[in-house]
Design brief:
- With 262 residues, the protein is of the alpha+beta class.
- It has two domains: 158 residues, Four Helix Bundle (Hemerythrin (Met), subunit A), CATH 1.20.120.450; 71 residues, Nonspecific Lipid-transfer Protein, Chain A.
- Helix 1 packs antiparallel against helix 2 and helix 2 runs antiparallel to helix 6.
Length: 262
């Protein structure tokens, strides 16, 4: 595992906890309002149905509960910026976990996870280490990763069902920033400035670093387009053709660096 890196930005723990709870609530409300026949519909995630995707969303909080209930690891193994790149290759294990869930009673599953999460999180120390699929990390860092899981799958559910599901602003901001910072870790440098207003600006790609005036290589897009690019839900060529990406400069082509999270 690469050596730990200095965190490039901080996240307010209280706001992150509130954002995770709020976004899970938005998904829960949307799922429980779906007609039964919609749950058997397809999603863009392989063979998963809407029901299986909806069940998977509960794992975002369930992982926190299991981690806090487990013995604390002896040492930290994963920083926040390690996490997005560490997820590559985990799809098979996640698929098995989803199929092991009891997705027949989604109202019961969501109610149980909501209660267990609130119980586990009450008074929990944000610096406490907990085991995750990818290595031991602090609770505060793990909760930031939960915003990515929840926001990405909110978008997956909306795409599958045609339902408009709200995004908690703090959850969307944290998700956008972490995935932008992951790009800067994957392709360090200062030749390209990536702008995702209103939440993030990062510099990446080896080459001359720009320090004054308008950078010669700029990429700009909106948060949801960026999140879809960063997680492989769409590709660079499709979004450029749809004018959802503005790119200027000879180095401003990120196609070969995407996705940043598998």
């Amino acid at each position: 595992m690469p050596p730990a890196r200095k965190r490039t930005r901080s996240y307010d723990p209280a706001r992150t906890r509130a954002a995770v709870t709020a976004q899970f609530g938005h998904v829960r409300d949307a799922v429980l309002a779906l007609p039964p026949e919609a749950l058997d519909g397809p999603t863009r995630l392989g063979t998963w149905t809407v029901r299986e995707l909806a069940a998977h969303v509960t794992m975002a909080l369930g992982a926190v509960v299991r981690g806090l209930d487990a013995p604390e690891p002896a040492a930290r193994e994963l920083t926040l910026l390690d996490w997005p790149l560490a997820t590559a290759g985990a799809a098979a294990g996640i698929d098995g976990d989803v199929r092991a869930l009891d997705a027949a009673d989604l109202p019961g599953l969501y109610a149980r996870v909501t209660e267990e999460f609130a119980r586990a999180l009450a008074g929990a120390d944000g610096e406490r280490l907990l085991p995750t699929r990818f290595g031991a990390m602090t609770l505060d860092d793990h909760l930031v990763t939960r915003t990515v899981e929840l926001v990405v799958h909110t978008d997956d559910l909306a795409a599958a069902t045609g339902t408009e599901i709200p995004y908690d602003r703090q959850a969307l901001a944290a998700c956008t920033r972490l995935l932008a910072d992951a790009l800067a870790v994957k392709a360090p440098g200062g030749a390209v400035e990536v702008r995702i207003p209103p939440y993030a600006v990062v510099q990446c790609v080896e080459g001359p670093r720009h320090t004054r005036g308008t950078p010669p290589n700029v990429v700009e897009t909106d948060p949801l387009t960026w999140i879809r690019l960063a997680t492989g839900r769409t590709d660079w060529a499709t979004e450029r053709a749809a004018a959802r990406i503005a790119a200027s400069g000879e180095r401003a082509d990120l196609a070969g660096l995407l996705p940043v999270m598998g």
